[in-house]
Amino acid sequence: MLGDSRLSQRRETAGFAVSVGFVCLAAVRDVYLGGVFQRITPLLIAIVAFTLCTVVFLPAAIVSSRKSLAVLRHRLGDLLWVNITTAIAWITFLYGLKLIEPLVVQILYSGIGPLSVIWIERNLSAGGRGAPITRGERLAYLGLLVTLAFSALITLAGLSGMTGQPAGSAVLGVVLATSGGVSISVSTMLCRKLTDAGVTPSALLSLRFPATALSAAAMMSLFPIGLSSDFFLVDAMILIALLLIIVPNYVNLVAISLASPLTVRVVLAVGPVLIFFGQLVEGRLTVSLYSLMAAILYGLAAISAAIARQHAIRTAESRVVT
After folding, report:
1. pLDDT tens for the 322 residues of the chain, in order
2. Residue 1 lies in a domain
3. Of 198, 305, 209, nearest to 262 (Cα)?
4. Is residue 153 part of a domain?
5. 69 lies in some domain
6. How many domains, in total, are found in the chain?
7. Which helix (H) or strand (E) segment is 45 a member of?
8. 295: domain range?
9. Assigned domain for 2 exists
10. Which residues lie closer than 8 Å to 98 by C-beta, 6 or more apart?
């Protein structure tokens, strides 16, 4: 028992450290790509990153995860929907980084997730799965919803760090970031379903993104976009894709496999604050105290929601045991 406790504690500590690494990588990704996308279309990065992801992880899955691939062959419908929702989520997210402040994109993209998952579980899932929503959760989710509305409002009112943008771009950016957050939540739920069926995370990662790369390529062919004179070389885009998209995705999977959901959610909640300071270092955007306020409020609301949810689950489990 003592050995199991120590092993569990070590895994939790390692998961916490990996989660911190992921949130730092994600903050760098959002700030840097937000600047890059002012010069080149996000579709180029999407094509390179998600093609490379399949190329890197699929051979490894064929060698070490044949059972997982066999399960996926019998669940092609689920895999297709994972691809579709993932493509919608990532393409809208990347375009959101181009149109509005990265900090706000992350708040809307991540913050809408818990709210959409709760709604889906209560209204669309058979039998209404999940622990009942407690009063504490309702208050935490209300605070989260208010934070999302505040973040959208400062963007639409021109009070965020990205000033002087057309109103239409601000509206589109808010819509894309929010819809992307809903899509990634659905994708995550579908991935969890496949994982419960015996598919390893690495095998799922190898086949999660083909539709994203193909969709980006199709959009590039249908809507040709002129490239700027300082268009990145292919090797530079591969490096960006590897360090800022593929590595963070893999690190996130490792964090989720090691740490408890509460630990992961608490660490991720500080992401917007890190993005704010990253934006200060980059110097491209205006310093907005409204944006900093939104990041802090989001962190507090997201942590409160995660703690309330964990408490509700433990309370429900204890009642079942007794």
Report:
1. 555 667 778 888 888 898 999 999 999 999 999 998 988 889 989 999 999 999 988 998 999 889 999 999 999 999 999 999 999 999 999 999 999 999 999 999 999 987 887 777 776 665 555 556 778 888 888 999 999 999 999 999 999 999 888 999 999 999 999 999 999 988 888 888 888 888 888 888 899 999 999 999 999 888 766 554 445 566 677 888 888 888 888 888 788 777 777 788 888 899 999 999 999 999 999 999 999 999 999 999 999 988 887 877 777 666 655 5
2. no
3. 305
4. yes
5. yes
6. 1
7. helix 42-64
8. 15-321
9. no
10. 34, 37, 38, 42, 173
